[in-house]
Amino acid sequence: MMNTIYAFHLRYPYLALMLLFSALHARGQEARFILTNAEVAGDSLYLGLKLDFSSIRLNSRTCLHFTPILANARGGRLELPPVLLSGRRRYRFDRREWALNVNGGKHRTEPYLIQLYKRHSAPRPVSYHIGVPYSVWMGDAALLLRQEVKDCCDLQLLGVDTISVRLFTGQMIGRQTAPVRQYVEPLITAPSVTYSVRDIELYASMLSFLEPTVEHDKKLDEKAVFYIDYPLGSDNILPDYRNNRTELQKLDSLLSPLSAGDYSSMEHIRVCGYASPDGTYIDNERLATSRAGFFASYICSTYGIPRFRLETTSVAEDWEGLSVLLQSEQPPYAATVLSIIQHAGIFNGREKQLMDLRGGEPYRDMLHRFFPRLRRLEVSVRWNIRAVSAGEAYRLIYTHPEWLSLSEMYGAARYYRPGTEQYREVYEIAAYRFPEDVVANINASSAVMLTGDVKSARAYLQRVESDPRSWNNLGVLALMEGKPGEAEEWFRKAVGVEPQKARRNLQRLQRITVTDGRRLQDEKQVIQDKRLSVEDKSRSVQDNGGER
Known about the structure:
The chain is of the alpha+beta class. It is 40% helix and 20% strand. It has 17 helices and 15 strands. The chain has helices spanning 88-100, 197-206, 244-254, 281-303, 319-329, 334-343, 350-356, 361-369, 371-374, 390-396, 406-413, 421-433, 438-449, 454-463, 471-480, 484-494, 499-547, and strands at 4-9, 30-41, 44-52, 63-71, 77-79, 83-86, 113-116, 126-133, 142-150, 156-164, 181-182, 218-226, 264-274, 310-315, 376-385. Strands 4, 5, 6, 7, 9 and 10 form a 6-stranded mixed beta sheet that branches. Strand 4 (63-71) and strand 5 form a beta hairpin. Helix 15 packs antiparallel against helix 16 and helix 16 (484-494) packs antiparallel against helix 17. The longest helix has 49 residues, at 499-547. It starts with a strand and ends with a helix.
């Protein structure tokens, strides 16, 4: 049993910038975490923690959030339900926010426990027991603790500390008996059939792993939409005006490959400004063009990108975007408005017909409901991604799989033994990144069949069942599902595609069928012998009874 104590001083000096900081009175306070249990049993990871808040003091308007996090260096991450220590008034405010959905439906993980702080008594210790579906990346995961505070508005981050650099540093601990609350993360379901190592070795030699086409030029296209607020009479970008700061943060994500080493180089950026149909066409055209130009200048000055890398275009009246919104949201007048857009030209009274429709009610609704969403800026970036080695692909497969070609991803798979979960993960990431690629789906089916997961293999092969290259794997799948007749049909069809492998599989299938037949005959003979033995004993008893 582990019994290591981790104490974290809450970083309240950071909160000096916050309103009502003086009410916290928390300098010198600390929360204590004790990791009591970490164990893998079956397909689940079980954790036990004890939390001690006895030295914490809060006012009634404050709530502290403590969120355990599992994370590893390759991008694996899972946030566990937080424990909340809340003042009574803060708890009432939060309950009202949740009921009224004040934050617009913003999702946060449901708390493990909300403990109300009582002014005249120390908070009770918390026993935290949880079970989560185990994934391979958790084997080298660290256990972190994120600390946040809510006083009057949104959550503010205090800090993220490390409870354990590596969750499993020694032998696994025996399964704990305390009741465990299950926290379900969407994962691929475990196979219902268990296969022996000998079976898997046999299937491994029967499966098809196809070579992908090597990509010499890798391009990555990314796009983001920005809704920028402007002061009256200005087209300039003011980062601190209204919600602009939040919108402009999207640029950091869009341009992040700039700061990711030497893997990528920018080919070009396109900025397109859109205006809504209300107003005159000339004014809308000037507005869309001007705002696209100002936004391009902002990108150049903020990120140091040469101006010749940027192209600007504009759409004066975004009727196409309006049509898409009408088709997706289907207001009562959608069909009539779409008909007018289709049959009346922009300069032939289209907007006038819409303004006159049903006394102008549909137009007024679109003016407030749809037109603001049409006034936007779309930025698309094209990156050139250089070729990477197998070692680089191994490091990027979990962090930036979008930078890898299919062949480079398979280079990363060579670092793992076939049949392991890591090997399977690489092939499934490849199929996720290239969902329409036949080779990616066939190879993913082979990788998951090596772990005995016929359900996932069926899903991958159904995508490409019409392609002859999938027929051999469909035969192996049928054999694993106990359908030798169907397997033989697929193998015979595959002879024209993979003649050597398909013929060998047919020969193996015949041997497997003969062996299974002999085994069945042997089992029938054993049953017959037992039945005869029982009959003989019965006769013997009857004979003895007659003598008496």
